[in-house]
């Protein structure tokens, strides 16, 4: 069945105020404009990241502003140029011009920072004839110095960045250092001239079983005399100059016609790759193995470190962007980041960008593991997968909010060079794992559309009002649900020709993915506006520390305070994650309290919160 449009007021957002507050309704009437645009904020160049609301977008799936670049200038058919708007694994036509056209759509929602999936030139298609897909996502780079022609030109990108900056919005690039596109092959599992439809995976070959100094195993012919290995103390150019024979594990080669496809030219030298076969996603192979066949760079090599620092310095200097999200951080050795991160930060500062924001993707669900990369690897910040994991447990697995409290109470584990856990980007779902609405539906297949909508709304409210930088995954503000992870969570915002997208229902609307979905009247879009407005009105919700006062072990109440140390501003938050009314005796909830957002409950001997609700209060009587 179709999900019906839901008026926010029907879910209690026509606010009821507690005793001690001004009885005027604090909800903004529909006809009154919500002033959330980023032009009202501190200038982007000096603004702390904690003041921002981020929007994560896949340009190919967002808006097609220039159909002339749909095939990227390549000839042939979709197996060559990668464009097929009917196939969920191929290019669909979105580009920089299309994103530029929709900047006001984002600014009106309150977005002040845009994070794009990688935009550099990719190998258009990869895979054998059975599983061939295209590089619409941007993670199969061949040329790190050019824009992918499917997305537009350098001038188109400059226009996008300039127009974003005019609106006081930051622009953040998604970058890769772990791998390039799949170009290198191995004779042992992909002999020259073999049928690409019958190519097996190349099993990972470890350093112990296949050391650098013998060929084909520890008892093989001696090679690379004098090479001392790749441990941090040996990562010098003199040592790596002794690594000349590359057939210690496999015999790598580049197929005819692809010898010089990578840019800069040094990337075509096979010495700069591990060449040990496919990752097993654990142990040594996680650092040295090919990421799903992609060519794994030898990031321990000093030339590779220097090369990538130069590459990404160029993009900062050329376009004056505001930050990097770094892909697959945990698959790169710590010593690389210890060199790369400070060099990039220093260069950005020299270019007049004092708050350049770098955060890494570390797909780990615990603060213990995540904090290793801020503390030891010296990556400035990491995506807070621990927050996402706790939210998933609460809204999909129906576990209690204690999971979130226990996660955030470990914030002291993070000891970055600058700042603390309040600068971590927090999110509910993404292009790899899937959408929060899908998680809710998957964990609660029999619940009503109205209940799913309320949970989605509650999850986003929790993300906006918790510590951290909220990240909206594109389409979530339009009620996108998706059918799963990866390609099934990468729907088109414009009219979709993909059958498995076009038949999707959406939360909060009668529309589907077969239609254009830039509806500024969608209740979730309007909720994001409201969340942003409230967040910006209260310093505690941007910069404040988060202190938990109550957290149920089962679905129920979560009560916390956020206090800004500079201004003393304090906000008290109550979330009820249960489908039933919940009560709790919490001293902080004893009045007078001024209600500022959500759905107020009732006071008495214990506080009573409506089902699937939240409420924010000032711990003082309202003025006026």
TrEMBL record:
Pfam families, sorted: Alpha-amylase
Residues covered by the Glycosyl hydrolase family 13 catalytic domain: 56-530
Keywords for the protein's UniProt record, in alphabetical order: Glycosidase, Hydrolase, Signal
Signal sequence, renumbered to the chain: 1-24
Superkingdom per UniProt: Bacteria
Keyword Repeat part of the UniProt annotation: no
Biological processes per GO annotation: carbohydrate metabolic process
Matching InterPro entries: GH, GH13_cat_dom, Glyco_hydro_b
Protein name: Glycosidase
Organism: Kordiimonas lacus
């Amino acid at each position: 069945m179709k999900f019906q449009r839901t008026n926010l007021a029907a879910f209690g957002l026509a606010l009821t105020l507690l005793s001690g507050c001004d009885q005027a309704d604090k909800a903004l009437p529909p006809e009154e404009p919500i002033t959330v645009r980023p032009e009202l904020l501190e200038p982007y160049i000096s603004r702390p990241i904690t003041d921002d609301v981020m929007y994560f977008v896949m340009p190919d799936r967002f808006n097609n502003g220039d159909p002339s670049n749909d095939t990227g200038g390549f000839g042939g058919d979709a197996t060559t140029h990668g464009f097929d708007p009917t196939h969920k694994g191929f290019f669909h036509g979105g580009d920089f011009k299309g994103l530029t056209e929709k900047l006001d759509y984002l600014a009106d929602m309150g977005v002040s920072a845009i994070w794009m999936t990688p935009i550099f030139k990719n190998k258009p298609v990869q895979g054998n004839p059975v599983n061939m897909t295209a590089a619409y996502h941007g993670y199969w780079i061949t040329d790190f110095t050019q824009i992918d022609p499917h997305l537009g030109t350098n001038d188109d990108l400059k226009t996008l960045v300039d127009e974003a900056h005019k609106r006081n919005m930051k622009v953040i690039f998604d970058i890769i250092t772990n791998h390039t596109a799949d170009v290198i092959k191995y004779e042992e599992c992909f002999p020259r001239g073999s049928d690409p439809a019958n190519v097996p995976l190349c099993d990972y070959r470890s350093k112990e079983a296949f050391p650098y100094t013998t060929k084909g195993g520890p008892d093989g012919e001696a090679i690379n005399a004098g090479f001392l290995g790749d441990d941090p103390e040996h990562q010098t150019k003199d040592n790596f100059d002794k690594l000349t024979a590359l057939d210690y594990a496999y015999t790598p080669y580049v197929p005819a016609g692809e010898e010089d496809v990578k840019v800069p030219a040094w990337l075509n030298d096979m010495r700069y790759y591990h060449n040990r076969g496919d990752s097993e996603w654990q142990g040594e192979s996680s650092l040295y193995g090919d990421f799903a066949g992609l060519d794994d760079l030898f990031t321990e090599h000093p030339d590779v470190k220097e090369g990538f620092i130069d590459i990404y310095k160029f993009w900062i200097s050329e376009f004056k962007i505001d930050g990097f999200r770094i892909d697959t951080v945990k698959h790169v050795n710590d010593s690389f980041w210890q060199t790369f991160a400070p060099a990039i930060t220093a260069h950005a500062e020299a270019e007049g960008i004092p708050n350049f924001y770098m955060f890494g993707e570390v797909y780990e669900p615990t603060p213990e593991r995540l904090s290793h990369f801020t503390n030891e690897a010296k990556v400035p910040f990491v995506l807070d997968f621990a927050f996402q994991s706790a939210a998933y447990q609460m809204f999909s697995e129906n576990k209690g909010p204690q999971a979130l409290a226990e996660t955030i109470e470990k914030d002291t584990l993070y000891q970055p060079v600058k700042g603390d856990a309040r600068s971590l980007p927090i999110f509910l779902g993404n292009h790899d794992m899937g959408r929060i609405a899908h998680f809710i539906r998957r964990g609660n297949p029999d619940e009503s559309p109205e209940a799913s909508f309320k949970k989605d709304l509650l999850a986003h409210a929790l993300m906006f009002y918790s510590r951290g930088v909220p990240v909206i995954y594109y389409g979530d503000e339009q009620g996108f649900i998706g059918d799963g992870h990866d390609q099934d969570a990468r729907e088109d915002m414009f009219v979709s020709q993909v059958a498995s997208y076009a038949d999707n229902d959406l939360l909060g609307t009668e529309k589907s993915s077969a239609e254009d979905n830039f509806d500024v009247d969608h209740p979730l879009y309007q909720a994001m506006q409201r969340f942003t407005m409230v967040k910006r009105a209260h310093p505690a919700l941007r910069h404040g520390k988060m202190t938990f006062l109550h957290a149920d072990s089962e679905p129920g109440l979560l009560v916390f305070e956020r206090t800004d140390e500079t201004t003393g501003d304090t906000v008290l938050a109550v979330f009820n994650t249960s489908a039933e009314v919940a009560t709790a005796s919490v001293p902080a909830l004893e009045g007078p309290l001024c209600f500022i957002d959500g759905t107020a409950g009732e006071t008495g001997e214990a506080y009573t919160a409506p089902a699937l609700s939240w409420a924010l209060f000032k711990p003082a009587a309202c003025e006026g």
